[in-house]
Structures are given as C-alpha cells and as structure tokens.
Design goal:
Two copies of one chain form a homodimer. The first copy, chain A, is α+β, with helices and mostly antiparallel strands. The first copy, chain A, has helices spanning 78-90, 149-160; strands at 11-14, 23-26, 32-33, 38-47, 50-56, 65-66, 69-71, 98-105, 110-118, 130-137, 170-173. Chain A is built from two helices and eleven strands, in the order βββββββαβββαβ. The A-B interface holds A 1-8, 11, 18, 21, 33-39, 71-80, 99, 102, 104, 106-107, 109, 111, 113, 128, 166, 168-169, 171, 173 and B 1-8, 11, 18, 21, 24, 33-39, 71-80, 99, 102, 104, 106-107, 109, 111, 113, 128, 166, 168-169, 171, 173.
C-alpha cells in the first residue's frame, strides 16, 4: 500500500494516536487504512459416503483437487458464499448445509469456514475454475494431490465423524504443511 | 474508494474481465481492489452462572453494554483475537475457550465469531474502551441496554444451552434489530 485510496496522497506506516500497532495512515487526510484477515467460505458437498471435489483449472495449484471455496463477498452470509462457490465451481446445488469447521491460517491472513451438506441431485460438473469434478469415497480421495493443507484437514475431519449428531464443528489453526 | 492504493491513479467501479461483479479497478495499473467482509472476534467470559460484560466508553453506543469483541487483526487466529479483546476491554484472562457462535451481519459486511470460556480468576476491570466491567447472571443482564442485536442474540443462546456437552455452536444471520 503506497497511496491513500480516499484522497490519493502518500501514506505512512505508523502507529496512529490511541492505537498500539502500525497502520497505513494518510499523510494528508489522516485516514487509517486497516488491513484484516479475509474469510474463505467453503463447503463439503456429499452424496452417500462420497464427497465432491474439484480439480483446479487456475493457479495456485492448478491440476490439484480442492473443495468448492472462495472469498466471501460483501453483502452475503458465509453460508450463502459457500453455496455460491458450490454452484460456481462444481455446478452443484445444496439445499441445506451445516457448519462443520473453522480453520485459521494466520500466516496468510485467511480464515476458512466450511459448511457440509447433501447434494440435491446427481447434477454436477466443472465450473470455470475447475478442470474436473468428481465424487470420492474416503478411500478414493486423491490424498496426495489435494491443493492445500486446509483441504486435507477439512476432509480428514469430515470423514472421521461424519455421522455425529449434532454435527461436530471443528476448529484448528493451519500453520504449516500437514502432509 | 477513489484512488489506487498501489499506484495512486484514479479508479473505476466496473466488472473486471472474467469476473461477474463490479470491483474497484485501477485505470492505469489494472489492480483490482477487492472489498470483503471483516471478522469481529469476540468472547463470552463467564464465572459460575454469570457472564462478564463491558460498558462501552466509545461510540457507537457509548454507555451500552457489550461483550469483549473487536476486529480480527492480520497474523492472529480468531481465538487469539477473542482472547486479546478480553484482555484489552475487560482486563481479564481466559486460559481456554470454545467456539460457540458465528453470526453474519451481511448488511454491514461483518461476521462475528464468539468463543466462550471461564475466567482464570476474579481479576477484571475497565480497559480503555470500557467505562465499567461487571459480572451478570441471566436475570441480572441489562437486556434493554445492550449495545447491539448480535450481543443480545449471543447472550440469549449462551444462557439457553450453556451446559450442553459438547458445547453447541450457533449460527445465525442478524439482519435487523432483534428487540
């Protein structure tokens, strides 16, 4: 960050009055430009004992498998974001979904929030950001070709207690490669 | 948003190529400035059957009661943020805490994430953003003088099932004044 998005002047990286950490502050209009973690809304679509995974068509990790997930947009709830990503990336619909995990990735300023839900029907397919979309049982999941450690963790925890009632909600911080 | 924070040039509000919604895009360097919801990390500190509330010393809602909560900072987990807010606003320490609720407030682009945990000891007091800090049982909570609808909801749900094992995790969207 180099310039004030409000007035266009240069900014300094300094501790504002009354604060205790450095912020990007405009040298002219004094606007403080806070930077905060972003939410990744994701879902675990399932059918029977199989989950729906997407093979990424974009970088990073093109060609690796992931769950439908993406940045939460202004104006939507986390659940709405998760269902939107499922439509966009897997061309699939979930009618209901339950919160099943919150995973912090503090070194990249991200928080993943996952919902799990049954596929409405057998319609799914590759959206713009996917090369392929397929259902996998726990034994069939391409564990060595998953895109990100948080995906591995979310799937492991999903399969470990998917029959729990009420659904378990997992929390964890992902601070390094898991596998 | 009027200027590019990267190069200082003017920006347009338009749909970038390959996207499906309007973004702030630099007219010179083409940087896309995404805007996303922010996380408010909060906690419900308790001792026996009483919860610790803070009377706000700052606007908005100065003089009204709230739970320790604030914007999650880059580099910290949601739990770390919740415990930090507890220290800063209530001068109190929680050694452990469990996730107990996620509340979307989509019309102001916020997502509250609450953890609940027992106070380490009987030390607490008003931090910089508080006028007063006190313990309240369910019957003593100043229900008509709470700062925000999300605080009312989080407290109602906390008292409704605080003995559940494992702890319940509530999800809700707060789209209007509740009371």
């Amino acid at each position: 960050m180099n310039f004030c998005s409000h007035c266009g002047h240069t900014i300094s990286f300094r501790v504002p009055e009354g604060d205790d950490r450095k912020r990007h502050v405009c040298d002219r209009c004094d606007t403080i430009h806070y930077q905060n973690p972003r939410i990744i809304a994701g879902c675990i679509p399932f059918s029977g004992d199989r989950v729906l995974l997407c093979k990424r068509s974009i970088e990073p990790r093109r060609g690796y498998w992931t769950l439908p997930a993406g940045f939460l947009e202004n104006g939507e709830t986390v659940l709405q974001g998760a269902l939107r990503e499922c439509r966009e990336e897997a061309c699939a619909t979930l009618d209901t979904a339950d919160l099943c995990g919150i995973y912090d990735i503090p070194h990249i300023n991200q928080v993943y929030v996952f919902y799990r839900g049954p596929l409405r029907d057998d319609r799914y397919g590759a959206g713009q950001e996917s090369l392929d979309v397929e259902l996998f049982s726990a034994g069939e999941v391409p564990w060595d070709d998953l895109a990100f450690p948080v995906i591995t963790l979310a799937l492991e925890q999903f399969f470990s207690d998917r029959d729990a009632v009420p659904p378990s909600v997992h929390t964890a911080a992902v601070t390094r490669r898991l596998r």
